[in-house]
Fold this protein.
Amino acid sequence: MMKSRLLRYLAQAACLLLALPVLAERPAVPLLPEAVTASAELLYGERDGFWEKTLLVRFPTPRRALSTSDGLVDARAAINHAGHPLLWVKLGAAGKAYSEGVRDALAERLGVAHAAVAQMATAADMDNLAVVTRSHGPLTVTVLATAGARSNAIRTGVDSGSHIEGWDEDNKPAGTINILVLTNIELSDAALARALITVTEGKTTALADLKVESTYTPGVQATGTGTDSIIVVSGTAAPRASYTGGHSRIGELIGKATHAAVIEALGKQNGYFLPGAKRFPDAGGGPAKADGDLRIALLHLDPVPGDIAGNRARIEAGIRAAARQGADWVVTPELAETGYNFVKHVGTGWIAPFPDAWMHTLAAIARDNGIALFVGFAEREKGSGTLHNSVAAIDRAGNILGSYRKQRPVGRAEAWSVAGGDGKPFTVDGIQVGTLICADAWRPDTAAQLAGRGAQILLSPANWPPVDGMGPGDVWEQRSRETGLPLIAVNRGGKEPELDFSTGVSAVSVDGQRLFSFSAPAGGIFYVDWDRRQRFREVRP
């Protein structure tokens, strides 16, 4: 029972933390300040088809360190080793021996004793490492942190433990905050020990500021994860410190650097951001609109197939441009995140369960700019792993309302996706919003189903080039006439090797009539103001 429960936690965490290097270039090697007399590098490898990434920090001479994994160490190096989440699932109870083996191999490579390497391990992606330095006068502190808290956050003193060392298999749930602290000044053993408290306080404050809740007791504030690790490494310079609590200047620096590093790492790994962190400073302008009207931005983009990082950046840039024009809602094309024929370029293994870290980032953007988002993306269903061609809905408060899954995947290009079930409207700004994706509009039933469930408007993200006999023709007008609902289709521009979308049209249709058509061969953004009933007005920035 316990083993199955823990493996389930691990599998869920593996999906939540999944991040493959196809999404972005490798980060630069961390540069450490000269004052801490240490060097850092990132080592990349592979085991059993899964990535391995290790942060290695080396010291020119032995440094006194306190590690929550190793105790007191005269360290020549410290490591934070990241294995792909699914690698930890595969290893199971052998994970501890595996991480110790990584440490031992690195020690031998460096020509030092195994015990001279302080160690931590994680399933968080080392590409999401945060490095923060704080200084005051002769004092310098650098913190290097990785963090994942969506699958294993706990509130100490409230949540229950489930593992007794030596009594059952050593399978602990995944999701870890690992913190490596470097100081330039010498710390006594007592100061090293007190630093663990200061680091923990800084970490817990970061979780509180981000409003991270316990995974196990919903609604209560998390204080950490069940597997957090800390290594504090003493420097060698004067003045020597015997106390590192919050009343000391060195303790202040340790706490502030930890707080900032944990916030940054959780943003990179999980999409947690402080309120206001994603606010666009130039948001809220644009032409005047009538009281009560909603401004809807149609992001008629040109996604590049397989360029996940680039497409995400284009979507975020489009949202920012829309915010600058006073948009209330932003709608992207179908599969705006991936491009249409993306599978042949990057496969589907990188797709994380919904909602992933990027979706949480979009939620922070929506929250901080008061914009509702409807975004076309490739979805992996949490638990089953089933893949869908989907649209995510996020309201102005940053609540991820859910996803609509395309009911009619088309041809080989969409063979990766499974048809979704019956769709339900999302409630945004008190309006019931129905979504249907591209070919879902080809026949009347999907639109009629949404209308029957109370939809007041239909949004239809699409990748639909005009092709004789294959539409879109007047299907959007037909659906608007049959349902009596306004329908906004958000198509795309550009070209992919297999299809030419450059003449694709986005449109607004009401009562069987097309009110507006928009086209941009290389992509563009179009705006309409809606009175929440049947009137639309084109807006030209």
Summary: Residues 249-270 form the longest helix (22 residues). The two ends are 61 Å apart (CA to CA). The first strand starts at residue 39 and ends at 47. The chain has a mean pLDDT of 92.
